[in-house]
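ok posting inputs for the manganese (II) ion job
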Amino acid sequence: MIVAMLETATEAQIQDVTDHLMQMGFAVHRTTGARQSVLAAVGKRIDFDIRDLEVLSGVEKVHRISAPYKLVGRQFRPENSVIQVGKGVEIGGPQVIVMAGPCSVESHDQLFKAAEQVAKAGAKVLRGGAFKPRSSPYTFQGLGLEGLKLLREAADAHGLLVISEVMEISQIDLMMPYIDIFQVGARNMQNFNLLRELGKVRKPVLMKRGIAATIEEMLLSAEYIMSGGNYDVILCERGIRTFETYTRNTLDISAIPIVHKLSHLPITSDPSHGTGLRDKVEPMACASLAAGADALIIEVHPDPDHALSDGAQSLYPEQFAELMAKLRLIAPAVGRTI
Ligand code: PEP
Ligand code: MN
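and the output
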């Protein structure tokens, strides 16, 4: 950490800040310039709040140098993490994995059709919510256990894996036999109790970026899961809330290369929730692949016009097949396969 003192800082104030830093466990190196003094604090601690120093008298600015997380950072693991999600499918390697399916599991017929269609087009993982975090309590809330059973059956019938959202701790054990990847939704990215419990399971977790979360907050949330012992974490950019109203969310594609620089964990892009509009899904999926996404998660419904949730952002099956064909053209240009 670097603490720049004000030009007007007194010797007593500089000493006070130095004492403070030493009490925090840092070794302090002072540089006395012609006008200003700068204190470099070196140490292993990462659990500090720079504001505690910024409020001390005589301090102008404090810069954090080391990251506030350990396990998710590249310092901990310089090479990319490759997560084995089952049936030989891995996320974070050269192959970009596409997860697709409806927003919610609605019925046997709907899900089996969706599974057949997405498998045929080349998806490896079937998505579908059995427990739904809906903004309104009056809208469809999901089929629960019945939905999980359908997911497993439909996925097995078409050689797919299953990803589904876990909304609370009590659902973890219930979901375990039916799913291959736990999805933590945007609204639960900072449900730290849930994240801690998912740290104890031995199944991959795809954790979505919160609606108003910074990239650093997303990485700190992933740290909760990893610090519990589960290193199989996949991040997901799904759009953040901005002042823009043309789209449901603003898909922050720049988060993909930023995460790759800071962390060894793979990152998925969700252009469906990221835009909220069917016709924007294809260009943003292509852009995400070009930007280095390790996986894509896309909503596809056999009959989007009658979907019980997120129909407007769900692709028609033939649109999804066309998208897959486009992605296959782009992948080699960025050194990947699909
Ligand atoms: C979903 O995947 O259907 C979902 C609810 O996503 P998010 O948590 O990103 O809103
Ligand atoms: Mn959805």
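notes: Residues 108-121 form the longest helix (14 residues). The chain has a mean pLDDT of 97.
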